[in-house]
Amino acid sequence: LFFLSPIIGELLSGSAPPAEFFTPFGFTIITLLYGGGAVITRELKTRWHKGVGTTILLGAAYAVIEEGLMIASFQNPGHPDLGALGTFGRWLDVNWVWATELTIYHAIVSITVPILLTEYIYPQQKTEQWLTGRWKTIVPTLFTLDVAIGFLLFTQFNNFIPPIPGYTLFIAATLALAYAAHRLPADWARKGTKPMRRPRYYYLLTFLGALTQCIIFGVLPQNLTFTGAPITVAILGIALQLGLLKHLASYDWHTATRLHYHRLLFGSLSPFILFSYLQELDQTRLDNTTGMALVGTLFLIGFILLGRKANSAPSDAHNPAQPYTQTP
Question: Is residue 89 assigned to a domain?
Answer without folding.
Answer: yes
